[in-house]
Amino acid sequence: RGPVVCPGLVDLHTHLREPGAEQKETIETGTRAAVRGGFTTVCAMPNTKPAPDSPETVEAIRSRIRHSAWCRVGLIGAATAGNDRETLTEFEALRDAGCVAISDDAFMLRTRGQRREALHRCADAGLIFIAHAESEELSAGGVMHDGELSAELGAPGQHEDTEVRSLEQWREAWDSAGPPPLHIAHLSTARSVELLRAWERGPTAETAPHYLALTQAAVAEHGPNAKMNPPLRTEHDRVALLQALSDGLITVIATDHAPHTEEEKAAGLTEAPFGIVGLETALSMTLSVLVGEAQMTLSEALTPLTSAPADLMGLPQGRIEVNAPADLLVFDADMHQTVDPTEFASMGHNTPFAGCELPGVVSAVMVGGNVVYGRDGFAASRPTELN
């Protein structure tokens, strides 16, 4: 009863935007948003300019992190040089420079040979490859789920086959390369779940809170603030994802936090960029859907946000143990709050959850033994010596 003490949350899929898009988010604002949402570790995706594609650029970005971050940040290396989708980077060199994983996020590898070589390199480097499951020739131009609603709204649709076909392509590369570490980002469809079930000794996978809580109907209500890639799908897909989490097929919940400016999101459904912010609503949405709807226990619901992602990345965080990092979250699962994007620490306000009354109020966040956030707001200074 009352406040809960648990490990600080761990996010495998955060877009901090810096360097290169500081008008959307910075390392400082993004990690403050993380802390406000209960996260003590985030893993930054590599779609920055410059990309973390060499030891030099990795060190330059990590230097920014050391000077600005309010929580721990694991840097994910770019799979190709400059995210050009052509030349694979040196994964072992990126590991030695401090990268915790490799990803082709938003810059999908084009050929079976690339995918197979990327898996071999990750196996040699002892790193996880985080794959963005999208078949570009099938998704081209689609801004929401392809179906009756997209036709009604006059919006180009993106069929579920775009995700499924990409998974099939990764399976072909996997079968050729043996079973190296592969993690599938942001699953969104029931057919993807079926494919994963049939994939013997297959990869790990994540989904995001918005795929568990919303369907394509949210696009009709919220427009570009419910536009994401992969898009929100049907109720059948949502229920299948919930079931996959309940039975342990999907092991991780990741936010895919993707801030954009209000001007960009005001461009309309077709022209606005993909993505929503999620760090400051993920805990509440998880409690609402997994505990409130799926009737999972609190421990079961928190595992995909704590120990599961930490274990996957080989991080010491995510557990309360002797000699583990003192990264802790205190929250009250029974208290409710109304989502107000104007109060976000993130520069991005692009959320479909504005106005929702959700459970879970963060009382305190401790990173490395330092209380960095509490009921009175942020500490006077950020923690140091964390990364």
Topology:
Blueprint: E1 4-7, E2 9-14, H1 27-36, E3 39-44, H2 55-68, E4 72-78, H3 91-97, E5 101-103, H4 112-125, E6 129-131, H5 136-139, E7 144-145, H6 148-153, E8 157-158, H7 161-177, E9 182-184, H8 190-198, E10 204-207, H9 209-213, H10 217-222, H11 235-246, E11 252-253, H12 262-265, H13 282-293, H14 298-302, H15 307-312, E12 328-338, E13 357-367, E14 370-374, E15 377-378
Parallel strand pairs: 2-3, 3-4, 4-5, 5-6, 6-9, 7-8, 9-10, 10-11
Antiparallel strand pairs: 1-12, 12-13, 13-14, 14-15
Helix pairs in contact: 2-3, 4-7
Q: How would you explain this protein's 3D organization?
A:
The structure is a single chain. The protein has 387 residues and is an alpha/beta fold. It is 34% helix and 18% strand. It has helices at 27-36, 55-68, 91-97, 112-125, 136-139, 148-153, 161-177, 190-198, 209-213, 217-222, 235-246, 262-265, 282-293, 298-302, 307-312, and strands at residues 4-7, 9-14, 39-44, 72-78, 101-103, 129-131, 144-145, 157-158, 182-184, 204-207, 252-253, 328-338, 357-367, 370-374, 377-378. The protein has an 8-stranded parallel sheet. The chain has a 5-stranded antiparallel sheet with strand order 1-12-13-14-15, with helices on one face. The chain is globular, with a radius of gyration of 19 Å.
